[in-house]
Design brief:
The structure holds 2 protein chains of 2 kinds. Chain A is mainly α. Chain A contains 14 helices and no strands. Chain A is 75% helix and 0% strand. The longest helix of chain A is centred in the first third of the chain and has 36 residues, at 89-124. The mean pLDDT of chain A is 88. Helices cover 26% and strands 18% of the residues of chain B. Chain B is α+β, with helices and mostly antiparallel strands. In chain B, a hairpin with a 4-residue loop joins strand 7 (185-188) and strand 8. Classes of the chains: A mainly alpha, B alpha+beta.
Chain lengths: 322, 577
């Protein structure tokens, strides 16, 4: 089991390597992004430009530059942004992480609770009008693009109704949990709800179909025959089994979101998380930061995948030999 | 003035903009205006007395993103040049007042204007006494000498263009590490003087000493870009912290005492914060809600109606000395043909471009390279229907005839624009116009952050591009010489500011003559620059479109708004109390 887990994690290394090479090459294949001219400034003298090129090692062959970049990122950990010079990439990511974690974990609690409640209620009440109604609400949540929903939420809470109903809503931005827990929660409330709206719908739908399938299983019939109450069957028997795919889905989603997939939510609500950092770096084609955040994101996705695989293998020995 | 892409005004035309004109206070050429304050600048351009009743409070500015390194000798963006006004000083400074007087250079760390001798080649400055840096260290001649050497050591963007005339600069440009200027910048601690020797007279040198790249920082400052670590300065404020992902925080410099009200006035707020990370939409909302005091980025088009009507007293519109223009690459077909270039100048409807930019309240059509109100500008218009001195209408018939005569019809033309709404819409207009003229036009929108480096890379062979230029300092050469001289065209380089690749021996000689005349007679020189402008327009390497105006949106808390034509809103003179 341990060997499998190790093998699985080791397999992540070539994936991360391939991603880093790809990001690096795409950057240099993009026209007009050679950082030297931008670092040197408008109307820089050719001599100044050459100096900048040399100082940043931009006159060296591509493989050397790649190795230097990775050395600064992973070994000496002093890689600096090309745009905000003097700003180190690794601390930027570590400072942005708590913001993303706060956003994603808070939203996860909300969507898990909402998703499980909605999914269970829909499955329990199938055949009635409530079931399609809940599913419709779920689909609406899934279909609303998060940046649009976020902007609409902002429009009401910060603009149109800010002087009346939503006077209690703080300005956009982030307050650290350790600075002021109350303000932390208040600042994150609407971002949480916005992000959760998307995932709650997905989870509710997945859970409902799993539950419906489970309710037709033999063990449920057995339980019914033994006279177990419907409520107990639903919660104790069917729901427990149906949660397995939900949990594995959750693992993957959380991995991607912590890795920066909450980008649009962060941008819309002005949260300085990893997603926002990635977005800004992409806007400015800031290679060191892009490299840092993309590798960070890839790491979390690969890690989550590996963990899910390990958990699967734990549950089902057949998966260990795949 | 170099401007970050984010500051490039992103506004489109709406009927609602008409409201802006009537509702807003405006800062025109003659002075300043503000709805909540009395005039802060007298007619003579002298700053008003300090009003201690307004001292204190925290000014909260918002910007979409940070503008890079905080090093005043490196950063080349309006966003920070504006803030440096209260943080750093040079030997000279632009007068910190609103209106036309803001173009005047006054002594700053020097106690008076320099003594210019040796045929304009030697500048002698006497330093003021008793000035301290924000770290408590007294300012000495050593700091001044070290600061000028540091310009080269750290490869400052303008080291090769502004300061290359200093004796010894050539060697420093070639080998920046350990740069010394023993004959170029000479300090005399006993006499408290600094002498700068130039290889040739440069009448624009005082301007170049008044921009932030010539800031005086303590001797021993890092020999590389200080990046996010703030350097001590002599201004009324110092940076307490800087995180490009969060905020820049300025607090009062405890060692500051006002020595010249027009060069470095005492500021009003106790603290100035500029926070980063909100979208422009959210920034505008934050100012409306009183959560922030000023938006750095241009308000989006769909909010102009709202701020122009509901928040009219908080909007300030000011004309800029800047130009939006098209570059026609004179080294690439079809624009290596004079007639083809002239055809474009005849055909482009400047009014259409103005409409797409936001209407006549936000921009004015132009015919010349030098913006209206700029030294050397004369009202002439070579390419307007029916002739005259101002632009009236395009002449499509004439343009079509020229295209026909040039024999370039049917050729392919790529138009490179930034990918935002305004630039793209102007690009689409150009595409249809070129098609109408008989070319096969394609539009290439690029991210706003890379478009400029792309089009100034000669290897990309850009035929037609839409871009803009904002003055660095008020001299005609900052437009004509920088954008269109042979010296600004670097074939095979990715930093060729002369994007049109225009190098005409006759016009270049005219420019050199105008530069030479500046040494003896600025008025005569400006007349010559006017002639250069017309000579350039005759060759048509670019199509001037319009000169833009700036929309500043402030909160209700803010008073004493003043607009410097050089560095825009004077941040530390705002009242928040």
């Amino acid at each position: 089991m341990l060997a499998f887990a190790l093998r699985r994690l080791l397999a992540a290394i070539p994936v991360l390597f391939a991603i880093s090479v790809l990001v690096f090459l795409i950057f240099f294949a993009t026209p007009g992004v050679d950082p030297a001219a931008r670092i040197a400034g408008r109307n820089a003298d050719p001599a100044t430009l050459a100096q900048v090129r040399h100082t940043f090692g931009l006159d060296r062959p591509l493989p050397v530059r790649y190795l230097l970049l990775m050395k600064h990122l992973l070994i000496s950990r002093d890689l600096e942004s090309f745009v905000n010079r003097g700003s180190r990439v690794v601390p930027q990511i570590t400072h942005a992480m708590p913001v993303t974690l706060s956003l994603v974990l808070g939203a996860a609690v909300i969507w898990l609770i909402a998703g499980v409640l909605m999914g269970t209620a829909a499955a329990a009440l199938r055949g009635t009008l409530v079931d399609p109604l809940i599913m419709l609400v779920g689909v609406i949540g899934v279909s609303l693009p998060v940046y649009w929903l976020g902007e609409v939420v902002n429009l009401f809470t910060q603009n149109r109704l800010h002087d009346s109903v939503f006077a209690w809503v703080p300005p956009l931005g982030y307050v650290g949990l350790t600075d002021d827990p109350g303000q932390w929660a208040l600042h994150l409330l609407f971002p949480w709800l916005t992000l959760a709206a998307l995932y709650a719908g997905i989870y509710a739908r997945v859970l409902r179909s799993e539950l419906v399938a489970a309710l037709n299983e033999d063990y449920v019939r057995t339980a019914r025959a033994k006279g177990v109450s419907e409520r107990r069957i639903l919660i104790r028997h069917a729901l427990r089994c149906s949660l397995i795919p939900v949990v594995s889905l959750f693992g993957l989603d959380i991995g991607a979101l912590i890795g920066g997939a909450a980008l649009l939510t962060e941008v819309v609500f002005g949260l300085p998380g990893v997603g926002k950092l990635t977005y800004d770096a992409l806007q400015n084609v800031d290679l060191p930061v892009i490299m840092g955040t993309v590798l960070y994101a890839a790491f979390f996705v690969v890690l989550a995948n590996a963990l899910v695989d390990v958990v699967y293998a734990k549950l089902d020995p057949r998966a260990r030999h795949v | 003035m170099p401007r970050s892409a984010t500051r490039t005004v992103l506004v489109t035309g709406t009927a609602a903009l008409a409201l802006l004109a009537t509702a807003c206070s405006s800062s025109g050429d003659g002075g300043t205006a503000n709805s909540t304050s009395t005039a802060s600048t007298s007619a003579s351009g002298a700053p008003a007395a300090y009003q201690s009743a307004h001292k204190g409070g925290t000014l909260h500015l918002v910007a979409k993103s940070a503008a890079g390194s905080l090093d005043p000798q490196v950063n080349y963006t309006l966003q920070y040049w504006q803030l440096y006004q209260g943080m750093y000083d040079g030997l000279l400074a632009f007068k910190k007042v609103g209106g036309q007087a803001s173009f005047t250079v006054v002594p700053d760390l020097a106690e008076s204007m320099p003594k210019v001798t040796n045929g304009g080649k030697t500048y002698t400055f006497t330093l003021r006494k008793g000035i301290k840096f924000s770290n408590g260290k007294a300012l000495t001649t050593d700091d001044v000498v070290a600061s000028f050497e540091r310009v080269f050591t750290i490869s400052s963007p303008t080291a090769g263009s502004f300061y290359n005339g200093i004796v010894g600069a050539d060697a420093c440009l070639k080998k920046p590490a350990g740069c010394t200027l023993p004959k170029g910048v000479v300090g005399d601690a006993a006499a408290n003087t600094v002498t700068i020797n130039l290889t040739a007279a440069d009448p624009e040198f005082p301007y170049k000493l008044a921009v932030p790249h010539a800031s005086i920082v303590p001797k021993g400052s890092p020999a590389k870009d200080a990046g996010t670590r703030p350097l001590p300065g002599t201004g009324a404020y110092k940076a307490a912290s800087y995180d490009p992902n969060k905020a820049l925080k300025l607090v009062r410099n405890p060692y500051f005492k006002e020595w010249s009200r027009e060069a470095q006035p005492q500021g009003y707020p106790d603290e100035i914060d500029e926070t980063f990370g909100l979208t422009v939409e959210a920034e505008v909302t934050a100012v409306e809600n009183g959560q922030a005091d000023w938006v750095f980025d241009a308000p989006p088009a769909d909010r102009l109606n709202e701020i122009g009507t509901k928040y009219a007293s908080q909007v300030h519109v000011s004309p800029l000395t800047a130009m939006w223009y098209l570059t026609l690459n004179v080294n690439q077909a079809p624009f290596n043909n004079l007639k083809a270039r002239q055809a474009i100048n005849w055909a482009v409807d400047r009014s259409a471009a103005v409409r797409l930019y936001g209407g006549t309240n936000l921009a004015q059509p132009v015919c010349t390279v030098l913006p209206p109100g700029f030294p050397g500008h004369t009202d002439t218009c070579d390419y307007t229907k029916g002739g005259g001195t101002t632009w009236k209408a395009p002449d499509l018939a004439k343009a079509k005839a020229l295209v026909k005569a040039s024999g370039t019809a049917g050729q392919e033309v790529g138009i490179v624009v930034q990918d935002d709404e305004v630039n793209k819409s102007i690009g689409e207009y150009l595409q249809s116009l070129l098609t109408q003229l008989g070319y096969k036009a394609t539009l290439k929108p690029l991210s706003a952050n890379i478009q400029f480096t792309y089009i100034q890379n000669t290897k990309n062979k850009v035929q037609l591009a839409l871009t803009s230029w904002y003055q660095d300092y008020p001299a005609a050469s900052d437009f004509l010489n920088v954008l269109l001289s042979c010296g600004s065209f670097h074939a095979g380089s990715d930093s060729s500011i002369n994007i049109a690749g225009f190098c005409d021996k006759t016009v270049d000689a005219q420019m050199q003559d105008a530069l030479a005349t500046e040494r003896t007679d600025m008025t005569a020189a400006n007349t010559k620059w006017g002639a250069v402008d017309q000579a350039v327009m005759a060759k048509s390497p670019l199509v001037p479109l319009f000169t833009p105006k700036l929309v500043d949106f402030t909160s209700t808390r803010v008073g004493n708004y003043q607009f410097s034509k050089q560095f825009y809103m004077i941040v530390d003179q705002l009242w928040v109390k």
